[in-house]
Each structure stands twice: as C-alpha cells, then as structure tokens.
UniProtKB/TrEMBL annotation:
Region (Disordered): 288-335
One Pfam family this sequence matches: TPR_12
Segments annotated as TPR repeats: 111-144
SMART domains according to UniProt: TPR
Protein's recorded name: Tetratricopeptide repeat protein
Stored InterPro entries: TPR-like_helical_dom_sf, TPR_rpt
Coiled coil: none
The keyword Transferase is assigned to this record: no
SUPFAM superfamilies named in the record: TPR-like
Entry superkingdom: Bacteria
Residues making up the signal peptide according to the UniProt record: none
Keywords, comma-separated and alphabetical: TPR repeat
Species annotation: Citricoccus parietis
Amino acid sequence: MADDAGDQQASILAWKVAVAQAEQGEVPEASDLTLALGHQLLEAEEHALAERVLAGLVRREEAARRLPGLARALVDLGHAARHQNRPAEALEHWGRASTLFEQAGATDEAARMYLASGALLNRQEKPEEAAERFSRAVELARQDEGSEDNDPAVLPQALHALGHVLCELGEERGVALLDEAIALAQDSSASWYEADFTDTRARGLWALRKGAAAVSSALTAADLFAASEDAMASSNAELFAAYVLLEQERAEEAASLFRMITEKEDTARYLRMAAWLGLAQSLDLSGDEEGATKARLEADAAASTEDPDDGTGTGTGTGQAGTADSGLDNDPETD
C-alpha cells in the first residue's frame, strides 16, 4: 500500500519489519520477504543497500539449495550491480540465473534474462555478444510458444532485439526477424509495439543502407504512432525519415518533411530545433542560402524556448539518420 502511494521509505520500513518478524519466527516466507525488501530498495535507488540484502539472500538460498529462490535473487542482485556500474558482475549474476531458470523449465524467465544480458552487452558496444544472447532468447521463446504458461510478449521482444542488432551488424536476415515481430504485434492488437517495431525496422534498413525502404518504413511507423496517440514518437519517426532523405541528397523531399514537423503545434522543442537545422541543411543543398539562414535563426529560437514537456520522448529514434537506435539500451527492469 505504501509503495502504491509512492511512499518508498515507508514501504522499505514495512518490508524490513516483515523480514525481521519472519526470521524470528523461522517462517518459510522469510526468503520471499527478503527478496521483496531487496526489490523495494532497488526501486528506491538504494542500490548499495539492496546489494547487501540480496547478496545475503543469495548465500542463504544457495546453502539451502532453494534454486528457484536463488535464481530470482540473482536477477535482482544483477540489477544492483548494473546500477553501480559493474556490468561484468551483472552479466555473471544474470548468466547464473538464466541457467537455473532453464534447468527449472522456466523458459520465459530464462529468455528475459538473456534479453537483459543482451541489452547490457549492446550498450557496451559488444553487438556480436549481444546477438548471441538475443538469439538464445528467441530459441527459448519459440520453445515455449503455445504452452499454457507462455508469456506472449517475450517472443516479439526477443525477435525485435535480435533483428535490430543483426541489421546493425550488416545481416539482412535481421529485417525478416523484425517483420515477424511486427506480425506478432499485429496479431495481438498491440498497436504501439507494432509502431515501435516498425520504427526499428526503418532504422535497421538504413543501417543496411536501404534508403528508400527505410523512409517508407519510418513514415509508416509515424502513422502508427499517431494512431496510438503518441505524437512525439510520430514526429521522431518523421524526423528520422527526413534525415535519411537529406543524406540521400533528396533535398526537396527532405525540406518538405522538415517543414511539416516544424509546423506541428505539439512538436517538442528539441524535435522542432532538429527539424529547423535539418531544413537549413536541405536548403543549403538546394542553394537557398537566405532560406537556410532563416531556418538556423528559427533553430536558435527553438533552442532558447522553454518547453515543459521536453525530454527524450517516448519514441525510439535519435533524429539522426545514421543511428539505428531501437531503444535496446533499456533492459528488462526489476518489475
């Protein structure tokens, strides 16, 4: 109740009391309560304290040979290490957890851990190793497909992650995996994820230097985001398409798209600024020096404008055509 109310400190205190009472009474729920305490400490960003609690739990679960509890404790211990900038330790903990989940037949949980490990490796710019983890996640998710306990979200997420990384590595089969992820999102009526996966497909195509297809996919993603009422992600996808056009020296088409983004009332400041700068580059390419100068002045004005809703946006792109960022830096969190 305290956590639902946003009072993390009260929640932590309640879990601490519960753990103390359970340990005094030697009740079997003590391990689950300790895990809940460690999880709450992670939510409160008390990472060092969470690590101490979870490391003790790992030792106890290992000594008692309670393997399911050990696996779950290792998951959160890995998050504690990751948040303290110790990725190697996080990968070690998640690797052990993955093995334990597989041994227990919990393929969904194992797949999620391979996804988390792959995302962390991808963030460390180790795409080949990331692809190996994502590939294993896909294998496990396919094994579990159709079972009663199957989580239908795991396979499309795994396909999305693997497809993106393979495209970045120059492997065209990544596009087919992204197409499969999109089809699964369509089948489950997960419209926002269909948009997100389509956006990643555009960036993957551009990584493969398929410009025309990348633009088409990005504009489709923009329409899907708009239908899902995510205006910022929609503009972000359009911005990506415009930059691809610009890098292909299709200046007039790029300028039209950049202008459209600047004219939208709900465009975030950072997107509007990027669009004005893109328009300036397009006009430079077309030989319109006066128009380019005016566009740069508008970019400067946008940069100095207060925007209470400004931020990184809910979309997956960066606004730069050379970057195929699909949001894979976000590994599965502790919830």
